[in-house]
Design a protein that fits this description.
mainly beta; about 0% helix; about 50% strand; 14-stranded antiparallel β-sheet; globular
């Protein structure tokens, strides 16, 4: 039987298959200026996460930090600029995550100074003309983050750091991630939750969501990062991504040091009537069923109409009836890509 060459993947694409594993947190090796990995360099670092207050309020915070002064003016719909972004929903019946005004005078990411040692990295700036300062200090086991009049949080590493790599002939993405279980305050209210520090490593000229992003080549359907903390003190963190071809990432880590990488994965997105927001995502990972339940107040409507609507929810095994005391699952779906794998 003759081989149909048009059905074969391009050289170097591997049908969009990805690698994933645990990793060390090595600031001196990967965060020093000019560092490269597999021929890729840092597109940006991202500090982001989800926290809750004692009154049921939900907060998300995010900031993109480029490795050098960023002259590019991105389309804010597709890619974060240098602004600090804070959203909040108060838990009232019709509330969704809307932008807060507290960060309007915050430091621009271009003004941050990076200091790297063997086991730590620190980003600092300020005070600016509005009296605002920023300090983000990460070590192999501790976390401290201050944005004047917006957030102050401290914490410890929740689980082993993780990484995933999606190679391609024209675009590639190495994604390094670590998660801290934190407590502190936002806009004066006590909060607990999870904050992530992540770096996107891409080819020269690459920009997450915009240029040389292999997620677009794989026509990805969803990307979720999640964390659960339980009353017994245990914690679990994971990253679930899914697209066409052979693209999937299903990597999770536990506070006991266990790391699991899924070899097979399937996904179904269940959307509400408008076809934009989702109500639930069903997963099957190595034969085990998982579900992401959308938070009733977790739609990030304050970000506007975007191609990849952002939502907050809770990720868990379908047969796991435990309810964590602290949880988050921040992710996105791509309505234009459909609700199931198509090729």
């Amino acid at each position: 039987m003759p081989i149909t060459l048009t059905d074969l993947p391009r050289t170097g694409s591997f049908r969009h298959a990805a690698l994933a594993s645990a990793r060390r947190f090595e600031p001196a090796q990967v965060l020093a200026p000019g560092a490269t990995l597999h021929g890729l360099s840092v597109e940006a670092g991202y500090i982001w996460g989800t926290l809750r207050d004692d009154d049921g309020g939900l907060y998300t915070i995010m900031r993109r930090i480029p490795p050098a002064h960023d002259e590019h003016k991105p389309d804010e719909i597709l890619s974060l600029g240098g602004k600090l972004i804070l959203t909040h929903s108060d838990g009232s019946p019709d509330s969704q995550l809307m932008l807060r005004r507290e960060p309007r005078y915050a430091i621009d990411s271009n003004d941050l100074t990076r200091t790297v040692t063997a086991d730590s990295v620190e980003f600092t700036a300020g005070p600016n003309e509005h009296g605002r300062s920023t300090r983000l200090a990460l070590t192999t086991d501790s976390f401290h983050y201050i944005e004047t009049d917006v957030i102050e949080a401290t914490g410890t590493l929740a689980t082993p750091p993780l990484q995933w790599f999606l190679p391609g002939p024209d675009s590639s993405l190495l994604y390094l991630t670590q998660t801290w279980f934190v407590e502190g305050n936002i806009a004066g209210k006590p909060v607990r939750g999870f904050l992530f520090w992540e770096e996107a490593w891409m080819p020269e000229g690459g920009r997450l969501y915009i240029d040389k992003d292999p997620l677009h080549d794989a026509e990805y359907l969803s990307w979720y990062s999640w964390a659960n903390h339980y009353a017994d003190g245990s914690c679990e963190v994971g990253h679930y991504l899914f697209g066409n071809g052979d693209f999937h990432v299903a990597v999770r880590a536990s506070s006991d040091g266990t790391v699991t990488v899924g070899k097979s994965m399937d996904l179904t997105v269940h959307r509400n009537a408008d076809g934009y927001w989702h109500e639930r995502i069903d997963y099957v990972i190595d034969g085990e069923r998982w579900v992401c339940e959308a938070d009733l107040h977790g739609r990030m409507a304050g970000l506007g109409k975007i191609p990849n609507p952002q939502q907050e929810g809770r990720m868990h095994r379908a047969d796991d009836d435990r309810v964590p005391d602290v949880w988050m699952a921040w992710g996105e779906t791509v309505p234009a890509a459909g609700d199931r794998r198509s090729w």
